[in-house]
Amino acid sequence: MTLDQYLSAPAAPTIAQLRKRMCALGYEVKSDAQIRQWRHSYKGRKPDPTNSVGIEKATDGAVPRTSFYPEGWEKIWPEYVGVEGLTQEEGA
Fold first, then answer.
1. More confident residue, 24 or 74
2. pTM of the model
3. Considering just the CA atoms, what is the radius of gyration of the chain in Å?
4. Are 65 and 77 spatial neighbours (Cβ–Cβ below 8 Å)?
């Protein structure tokens, strides 16, 4: 699931709520606007690898970190190669 799909789902948190969750988990998110840019890949923007993990945790795994780095995530997180459910193949 992509960040946009997650935030568009019924009963999904607001962008502000997602940001609060990430901050509560210790991730630094500058503003709600930053999440909106990641949501729509505005001008190719995406979260850095650290915030990609934060989104994965804040969404309870619904938005996997690999959704932001579909090509090359294996180099960023080699320890997850072969872990089931980490890639975005289903419903992409």
1. 24
2. 0.85
3. 12
4. yes
